[in-house]
Every structure is written in structure tokens, then in C-alpha cells.
């Protein structure tokens, strides 16, 4: 699942598809036709979303440098397609690499628009997206990446006015990329200001983050935040605890500030699907994932739910039913239990991009795999919907997996669960 905007799971030795399911509905779901498709109760609301990634022109615009009219036409086509599939939300990436898809007061225009970071594209993509999504009855969730600066390590390639060049002390290279240092209070304040600039200007329905906090571990490399830890970490027994506190502060402070800037805007996060394995922590999931958000990304996603700092969580449960190291049928109930009684919404991130990919396990060659995910979710009242990665795959749908989901589960329109 290596791609821009999400991250591969390191599965270690446990990397084969399990032949047997664990129990009940999950086992039945592997047998086509074994029971009618479950659907959510009428009137309860259901999020049906799609991610539109802009980093490296992954989904949109299809190429940098298109005319403003062509970019807008492509965006409208994505919105119209969402409506035709009876989806009700789009999650548009508006701050892909510490730049912006609106006339930001803090950061340059995004490179994905014109091919030149800082160049005015001649229109307002985020403003247009909000207006046109709402005109079609779609929610617009504005997707931001807090700390990623560039998918390279050469600051001179950034536009001269970029904050990362004006404040080189904020930036660290790691794993072939540039990141803002989450351990610096001035960085945390700045990235909040930059994101909230969009919230103050536009009637977005939600602020949305994905799985990038501290960077995913890269073998043989060290994230060079020793100086920041020396200056700010004296109250913490370990650097890992200090890093988690830095991430907690970003989440908690952003949640508070969103409410101050624009009432009614929700705050959602879409983390990597495994908080911790049960072998690491008895509160964790029955998984054997090689990456755990708590330990490796210094993101205590379970805590954010239990503390009620966020309005929804959308774990990327990007594995098939029966996958040995990270079984969808085990992770879904773990997340349902995690949100139960908290008031935090649960939407499930779905790996549409895997459907039909010959590099993926056999389960992903079956057009019905994703539909079975929704069957399972319908048995968990905490699961309030799904978001599909990503718009390019929604359009191409090479083996008809998305069409199968729509036929089995989205026969009628649904309101969002607000």
C-alpha cells in the first residue's frame, strides 16, 4: 500500500492471508450469498466519503499546469461522480506540503496546481470546492497535513518566501523528506495558524488530518530532534513520551481553536489502523502489525477518542477480512469498542485502491471484498460510515468493487450523521 499520502504497513513475518476467519459474521461474510447484505437503519445517517488527494497530483489536478478552467472542470467531475454514486462527503487535500489550495496568509500556493510553488493559479480551488460541494448536497472536509514540508530534502527547491526557508531552524530532513519539527512550540502554533486560516475563510464542514504525525520509521535513520528534546523535554522520562505529548498538544489545541474560529466545524483524524498490538498492550487489538501509531508515530489515537478531543476518527483499516497480521474483522470491532460511549464518531477508511491490484492478496481480486466490509460494519452501530481511498480509484474502479458497494449498500441517498 505504498503511495503518497498514506503509508505501507510493515508486517514482518505475519504477512500471509489467513485461511480461516475468527467467528460469526466475519466467517459468513467470506461466503458469497450466505446472507443478505446488511444496511444501516433508516434515519440514522451515514457518512459516505471519498478522499481527493492533491499531493504529487495523485487524484487531482490530473497534472500540474492545467488551465484554471480545466482544473475546475476536473474538480466538478469528481463532485458530480460522488453525487452519482450516492456519496455525501468529499475529503479534499488542501494543504499537501506546507502550501495551500487557497490564497493563504501564511503559506504559498501549492505546487500541484501550476507546477511552480507560490504561483497564483488564477482561481480559488478551496472556495470553489466548498461552494460547489454544498450546491450538490455534499459535505466538504478540508484535509490538512500538519508537518510535511516537502517530498524531498532540498530547501532551496522551495519558493524563497516559504516559511521553511525563512525559518530553517524549524525543519528536519528525514527519510528523503522535509518535516517541520513537532517538538518546537513555535512550529505547533504556526501550523495551527496556517490551517485555521482556511477555516476562518470558508464554511468547511470539517478539518481532517490523515496518518502523518511524527514520520514513519525509516531503517538506519534518526529523526534529529535531540536539541528540541533537550530544551523542552525535561519533564518526560523518555523522548517517546515527550513526542507523544507534543502530538497530544497539537490535537487538543487545534480542537479548541477550531471551535473558536467557526462553530459547527467538526475535527476528524484518519490514523493508521493499528493503535497498538495486544502483544504490546492488553488494551490493543488482536493484530501483529509492524507499525503501531502509539509507539512509532507517537500518536496516541485511542487517547484522543477517550478524551473526546476529536469529533470523529476514521482509522485506515486497509486490510482484507482474514489478513493474518491485521484482520479487518478484528480491527473493526476493536475500534467500535474504543469509541463506544465517547460521543466520537467512527468512520472506516477503506482501501479501494487495493481492489484489483495484482500485487495485493487474493481477497482483493474479488469485487465483493469491500462490500463485505460494509456488511460487517452494519453489525456495529458505532460505525457511522466509510471513506474510500481515493478519487482516482472511484473513477477507474477496475474490477467494479466500488460499483458493487453502491449496488449492495448505497441504493438510496443518505444524510450525513451530524
Molecular structure report:
The protein has 418 residues and is α/β, with parallel strands linked by helices. 33% of the residues lie in helices and 12% in strands. It contains 14 helices and 11 strands. The strands form 2 sheets. Strands 1-2-3-7-8-9-10-11 form an 8-stranded parallel β-barrel, surrounded by 6 helices. The chain has a 3-stranded antiparallel β-sheet with strand order 4-6-5, with no helix packed on it. α2 runs parallel beside α4 and α12 runs parallel beside α14. It is globular. The two termini are 31 Å apart. The N terminus is likely disordered.
Low-confidence stretches: 1-35
Percentage beta strand? 5-15%
Largest sheet: 8 strands, parallel, barrel
Number of strands: 11
Please write the string of helix (H) and strand (E) elements: HEHEHHEEHEEHEHHEHHEHEHEHH
> Taking strands numbered 1, 2, ... along the chain, how are they ordered across the largest sheet?
1-2-3-7-8-9-10-11
Instruction: Bin the helical content.
Output: 25-40%
**Gap from first CA to last CA:** 31 Å
Offer a quick outline of the entry.
This protein is of the alpha/beta class and 418 residues long. It has helices spanning 24-29, 68-84, 111-114, 125-135, 163-166, 185-201, 226-232, 239-261, 293-297, 301-306, 328-339, 369-378, 391-396, 401-409, and strands at 47-52, 89-95, 139-144, 148-150, 171-174, 177-180, 206-209, 266-269, 312-313, 345-350, 383-388. Helices cover 33% and strands 12% of the residues.
Amino acid at each position: 500500500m505504498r503511495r503518497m499520502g498514506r503509508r505501507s504497513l510493515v508486517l514482518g513475518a505475519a504477512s500471509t492471508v489467513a485461511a480461516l476467519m475468527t467467528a460469526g459474521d466475519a466467517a459468513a461474510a467470506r461466503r458469497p450469498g450466505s446472507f443478505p447484505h446488511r444496511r444501516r437503519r433508516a434515519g440514522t445517517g451515514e457518512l459516505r466519503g471519498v478522499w481527493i488527494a492533491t499531493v504529487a497530483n495523485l487524484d487531482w489536478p490530473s497534472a500540474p499546469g492545467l488551465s484554471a478552467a480545466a482544473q475546475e472542470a476536473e474538480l466538478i467531475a469528481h463532485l458530480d461522480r460522488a453525487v452519482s454514486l450516492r456519496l455525501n462527503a468529499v475529503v479534499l487535500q488542501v494543504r499537501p506540503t506546507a502550501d495551500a489550495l487557497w490564497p493563504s496568509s501564511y503559506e504559498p500556493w501549492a505546487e500541484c496546481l501550476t507546477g511552480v510553488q507560490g504561483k497564483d493559479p488564477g482561481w480559488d480551488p478551496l472556495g470553489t470546492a466548498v461552494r460547489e460541494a454544498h450546491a450538490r448536497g455534499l459535505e466538504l472536509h478540508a484535509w490538512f497535513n500538519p508537518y510535511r514540508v516537502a517530498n524531498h530534502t532540498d530547501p532551496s527547491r522551495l519558493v524563497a518566501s516559504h516559511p521553511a526557508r525563512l525559518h530553517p531552524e524549524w525543519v528536519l530532513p528525514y527519510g528523503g523528506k522535509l518535516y517541520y519539527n513537532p517538538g518546537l512550540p513555535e512550529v505547533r502554533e504556526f501550523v495551527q495558524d496556517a490551517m485555521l486560516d482556511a477555516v476562518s475563510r470558508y464554511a468547511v464542514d470539517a478539518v481532517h488530518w490523515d496518518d502523518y504525525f511524527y514520520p514513519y520509521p525509516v531503517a538506519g535513520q534518526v529523526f534529529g530532534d535531540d536539541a528540541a528534546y533537550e530544551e523542552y523535554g525535561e519533564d518526560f522520562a523518555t523522548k517517546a513520551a515527550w513526542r507523544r505529548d507534543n502530538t497530544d498538544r497539537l490535537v487538543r489545541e487545534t480542537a479548541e481553536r477550531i471551535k473558536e474560529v467557526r462553530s459547527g466545524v467538526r475535527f476528524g483524524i484518519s490514523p493508521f489502523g493499528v493503535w497498538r498490538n495486544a502483544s504490546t498492550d492488553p488494551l490493543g487489538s488482536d493484530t501483529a502489525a509492524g507499525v503501531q501509531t502509539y509507539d512509532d508515530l507517537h500518536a496516541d489515537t485511542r487517547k484522543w477518542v477517550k478524551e473526546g478531543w476529536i469529533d470523529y476518527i476514521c482509522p485506515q483499516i486497509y486490510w482484507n477480512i482474514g489478513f493474518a497480521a491485521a484482520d479487518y474483522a478484528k480491527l473493526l470491532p476493536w475500534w467500535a469498542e474504543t469509541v463506544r460511549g465517547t460521543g466520537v464518531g467512527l468512520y472506516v477508511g477503506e482501501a479501494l485502491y487495493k481492489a484489483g491490484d495484482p500485487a495485493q492478496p487474493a481477497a482483493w481480486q474479488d469485487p465483493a471484498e469491500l462490500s463485505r466490509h460494509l456488511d460487517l460494519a452494519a453489525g456495529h452501530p458505532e460505525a457511522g460510515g466509510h471513506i474510500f481511498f481515493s478519487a482516482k480509484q472511484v473513477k477507474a474502479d477496475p474490477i467494479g468493487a466500488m460499483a458493487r458497494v453502491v449496488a449492495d449498500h448505497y441504493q438510496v441517498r443518505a444524510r450525513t450523521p451530524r
